[in-house]
Fold these 2 entries.
Entry 1:
Amino acid sequence: MSDVASEVLPLGAEPGFRRDIKIESCRLDEEHIQVRGQLTDTRADYEDASKALQVHCMVARLTIRLSDNVITDAQFGLPKMAFQAMCEKLPTGADALIGVNARDGFSAKLRSIFGSTKSCFHLSSLMQAMVPVMPQCRLWNTEFKYIDEKLPPEAVPRAMAKMQSRVIDSCHAWAAEEGGITADFKNGNYEPMLDRVSPRLLKRWRQHSQDQDG
């Protein structure tokens, strides 16, 4: 996947520090998705700014059961820690996440389990960054994929209404009164959303609309 923002609002000088957080997910099987987060910190060498020195690199991988959002497997990987033979000796391991619901109150649960001296601050930061992405991980690997492949075009209004009910007032575009997407949906204009979420369904929807008009 290309980096479309690489030239947008660049720093005024070479970066002295950089943190990269990457979160990706997949459909593991019919019952589970997997979510993987990776945090990497690098800093410039103070004597040679062209060199980058890795400070931290850590990975968290969660397996989540779709039926109830419960974590069935959790693992941490710590390939680079600031102080070797010290930082990786975590007081609380990934096993503490097994059985935890990854949706309802997940951020607070993470703070309770791994906050303060119970874990590594940077690993906790990575897991907190994963929290708001969880719904997207689920949707893109399950519902959005299903509607793109299989949803009958006549079911589009119902599917879009279900989507709207989940996210209403979550941002300005979904504002109940004046949101741009809300206005589109009120007018039955689903094409901008389908174009981004379900391009194959968009083709079926357009054909269905033409048939209805014809």
Note: The chain has two domains: 17-132, 142-213.
Entry 2:
Amino acid sequence: MDKAFEDYLKQFDLNNFHIKRKHIHTYRVADNCLKIARALHLSEDDTELAYQIGILHDIGRFHQLEETGSYDDATLDHADYGAKLLFEDGLIASFPVKKENYKVVEMAVKYHNKFAVESNLEERTEFFCKLIRDADKIDILELSCEGIIKFYMDGPIKPNILAQVQSHSQVRINGPRTNTDNVFIQIGFFYDIYFKPSVDILFERKIIDRLKDKVNDKIVCQELDRVQRYLKERFTC
């Protein structure tokens, strides 16, 4: 799987910071998929499938940057585009994915970045959609801890956004976003985690504490404390 992915990437400039960043992110997410799958005691075949989905989840990012010059999903949704590349344009044939898993992979790629997973998916498909969403969110949050993704306040928090987070939900925003908005979008990610092994990874890597250290803001720290209590209660960590 890794060789097929590296062969695909040969058409892009891996010295480009943004391409390199997504290259690294891909393997980190795939590794998170493996950790979650193994902790859930999935079969060998399903563990391999989880890894494959991790490798393919952001396949549309590379062309998105090349075509639009940005990672703005409002201009070109990278997940929809990735699913198109793989299953309409036939790129999936370049990867060692079993044909019986094509629909699962297609939906997992398509829905990994959406606000929510479609409600009428087949149970197995829904499961892998949730797994990749957890694995991806974990790395996005960790990249924020590392300063690769911006995590700082540039103004006051909007009351409607704070209310969404305080209701234990993800944050939905229409229109332009401030850096403060993005901080609370990421806090909202914690409320969309599905599996206890994912929460275990978050705590093992001290992601909540590290994010608190990044932002010296009373409200942010209060909400991250609230997240920590919520996750411990929900998953009895």
Note: The CA atoms of residues 199 and 231 lie 7 Å apart.
